[in-house]
Amino acid sequence: MTVALPQPRQLPKIDPVTAQVVAGALNGIALEMGHKLARMSYSSIIRESEDFGAAILDADCQQLAECAYSTPLQLGPIPGYMRGVLKAMAEDGEEFYPGDVILHNHAYYGASHGPDIGIGIPIFRDDELIGYSFTTAHHLDIGSSSPGSCGIVDAVDAFAEGLQFKAVKLYEKGVKNRQVWRMLRQNIRSSQVVVGDIEAQVAACRVGEQRFLELVNQYGLDTVLAASETLMTYSERMMRQAIERLPDGTYSAEGYMDGFLDDPDPTKKDLKVAVTVTIDGSDMTIDLAGTSPQIDDRPINMPFVGTVDIAIFVTLRSVLLDTALMEYVPQNSGLTRPIHITAPKGCLANPTYPAPVIARCCPGNVVADTLMKALAQVAPHNVSGGIGNIKVASYSGALDEDYWVYMDITEGSYGGRYGKDGMDGVDTLYANTRNNPIEDIEAHLPLRVTRYELIENASGAGQWRGGLGSIRDIQFLAPGQMSLEGEGNKYAPWGIFGGSDGTPGGVQILNPGEGRADVLPSKFPCRKTLVGDTLRTISPCGGGYGNPLERDPALVLEDVLDGYISLEAARQDYGVAIDPATMTLDIEATAALRSRMVN
User: Which residues pair with 52 in a beta bridge?
Assistant: First the structure.
C-alpha cells in the first residue's frame, strides 16, 4: 500500500469565532490525552509529577494543541520527535500505514533523551495521512548501565545510556509487534511498571487519534487546518510584536556549570555556556558560540533538537509573552517561527553522536538561565535573578528477581523578579514538574523521607529577595543503590540590578551507623547503600533583584517572622533593625542604619 503524502492545500478563509471553537476542541483533545495517560500510568514520575507530554500535530509536524498539564520539556520537543521519526523512516525505506504505532527515543533524532520515550500514531482519513497523535513520558528505566533513568553520569557513550529506539513499530497495520514488547520486558528493570507506562501512552494516543477524526468529520479537514493555521499565524504575530518592542542589537551573557568537580581532568568541570542574542526587527537569533566543547565520555551534553531549542523557546515565551502581564497567546508551532538558534557542532549544546546526553536536564536549565541573563539587558522587568537548579536522584534496589526503581527531584528556586520575590521550592524553567508526595513514596517504596523543608537564611538579598531552595533527606529502609545528577554546587545563582547572589547547593550522604556525613559533588554514579544510609540533597537559593536597602522593611520583618532570614541577616543584608524582645520594627534605627550603609 502506498500512502498518499500530504500535499499543499488551498485553505479557506475562516472567521475568528469558528477558529476559536476549533481551537477549544483541539485543546480539549490534548487535555483528554493527558488525563488518560496520567490516570493509566503506573509510575509516580508520570502519575504524580506529571513528567509527560501530549499533543496533536498536523501532517507537516506542526503542533496544533498540547496538554496544559504537561511539563515544557516533554511538550516542546514533540514536533522534533515526529520529524526525527520521519527522518529515520526515510533512511530505512519505511512508511506509515493505518494502525501503526511508533516507539521512538533516539536523542539524535529529535528526542530529548533516551528515558523520554515518544509514542506516536499517524492519523489517517481513508488513505490520507492528516496528522499525528503523540505522547512523551519519562520512564523509570531504559536498560542503561546502572539502575534508573537518571544519575547515569558515568555513561561513556549513547549506547551505555540504555536502549535506543529509532522509529520502531509497536503495532504495524493494527497488529501488535509482540517481539518488540518481549524485548522491552526482557531488557528493562522494573519492566512491569515501564511497559505499563508505555501501554498508557499508546492508549492516550488512541484517544487523540479518535477525537481528532471526530473533529475532522464534524467540521471538515480544511476547516480544522484553516483554524489551526489562523491560530499559528496569530501566535507568530504576537511573538514578533514582542520582539519588535525590544531594541535592535546584540546582547550576550555567560553561565557556568559545575561539571564533574571531583574529576582530575580540567576539561570536565567549570564548563561555560555562552549565549548571544541578536534582535533584528521581529526576528531573533540565539547563538551559543563560545560554549564549552562536548565531553565525549560524560552524559551532560545536550541534544540541540529536543533540549537546547526547548530551553530557549520556553524561556522566550515566558519572558516576552508573560500571561501575568498580557492576554493568553495560544501555544503552538507559530511561536517558534521568528526564533533562529545556532550552536557550533561539537559543543555541549550541539554534540556529535554518539556523545552521551542522558543527564542533559540541569545543563539545559543553565542554557535557559543564561539566556534570561542576556535578555535582562533589554527586558529588565520580565526576568528574574539567577535560578537555583534542581537535583535528580535515582533510588533502586533488588525486588525478588527484578528491581524497584524510584526517581526523585529536589526542587530548586527562582531569583527575585520585578515587584515580587523569587518562588520557593519549585522546579525551574523548562523542567517544571510537580512534587511527588511523601505519602506516595513511603507507601510504595522501602524509603523514608526524614527531612523536607525550605532552606533558611540563604536566598540572595534584594529589593525582591531570591527564592528559597529545599533540603531533602531520604533514608533507605532496605539495601539498594543510588545515583545523582545535578548542578549548582559551585556556582551560585546570580543577583541582578544590585541584588546579591544566592547560595550554591550541596549533597551529603549521612551514615547514622558510623555517625558521619560525607560531602559529595553535584553528581555521582551508582553506589551501593545499606539500611539507614540517607541521601541529603540541598538545592541552590535564587539570586536577589534590586538593591536590598530598598526593600520594604515590613517585608524584611515578615521574612524574619516566617523564619526565612535571621535577625542578623535582616540587619547586615537589608539594614533593617528589629527589636528581638518584641519582634517589631525599629523605624528610627532602621533609617540610621541604612543611611550609614549607603554612605
Answer: 137
Of 47-56, 165-174, 540-549, least confident by mean pLDDT is 47-56
Given pLDDT bands bounded at 50, 70 and 90, which one contains residue 7?
A: low
Q: Which residues pair with 269 in a beta bridge?
A: 259
Instruction: Fill in the DSSP letter of residue 413.
Output: B
**Grid coordinates given for 166:** 529509532
Number of H helices, E strands in the chain: 13, 22
Contact in structure between 259 and 270 (CB atoms under 8 Å): yes
Q: Which amino acid is at 83?
A: R
Say if residues 103 and 165 touch (Cβ distance below 8 Å). yes
d(CA 12, CA 577): 68
Cell of 136: 512523551
- Cβ distance 471 to 446 under 8 Å? no
Band (pLDDT 50/70/90 cuts) for residue 4 is: very low
Domain ranges of the chain: 16-234, 384-551, 553-598
- Helix, strand, or coil here: 595? helix
Q: State the Cα–Cα distance between residues 141 and 157, nearest whole angstrom.
A: 17
Instruction: In whole angstroms, give the CA distance from residue 149 to residue 138.
Output: 8
Cell of 71: 511539563
Q: Are 575 and 590 in contact (CB under 8 A)?
A: yes
Would the CA dihedral through 474, 479, 484, 490 be positive or negative?
positive
CA angle 71, 525, 445 (to 5 degrees): 60
Asked which of 297-311, 444-458, 500-514 is least confident by mean pLDDT, the reply is: 500-514
**β strands within 178-264, DSSP E:** 249-259
Query: pLDDT band for position 542 (50/70/90)?
Result: very high
- Ranges 43-47, 135-139, 378-382, 532-536: which has the least confidence: 43-47
The per-residue pLDDT for range 212-266, each reduced to its tens digit, is 999 999 999 999 999 999 999 999 999 999 999 999 999 999 999 999 999 999 9
pLDDT of 1 strictly over 80? no
**Rounded CA gap, 377 and 250, in Å?**
10
- CA 597 to CA 599: how far, in whole Å? 5
Residues with Cβ within 8 Å of 487's Cβ and at least 6 positions away in sequence, in order, are: 257, 258, 362, 363, 365, 366, 389, 522, 523
pLDDT for the residue 6: 52
In terms of Cα–Cα distance, which of 142, 178, 191 is closest to 42?
191
* C-alpha of 115 from chain center: 13
Contact in structure between 563 and 550 (CB atoms under 8 Å): no
The C-alpha angle 30, 35, 37, rounded to 5 degrees, equals: 95
Three-state SS string across 18-35, please?
A: HHHHHHHHHHHHHHHHHH
Dist CA 226 CA 63 (whole Å)? 14
Burial of 599 (C-beta count, 10 Å sphere; 0-12/13-18/19+):
exposed
Give the Å distances, CA to CA, from 433 to 52, 59, 324, 411: 9, 29, 20, 9
Interacting residues of 270 by C-beta distance below 8 A, sequence separation 6+:
256, 257, 258, 259, 490
Q: Which residue did the predictor score with more confidence, 288 or 44?
A: 288
pLDDT value of residue 72: 82
Contacts of 178 (CB under 8 A, 6+ apart): none
pLDDT digits (tens, 9 = 90+) for 53-62: 999 999 999 9
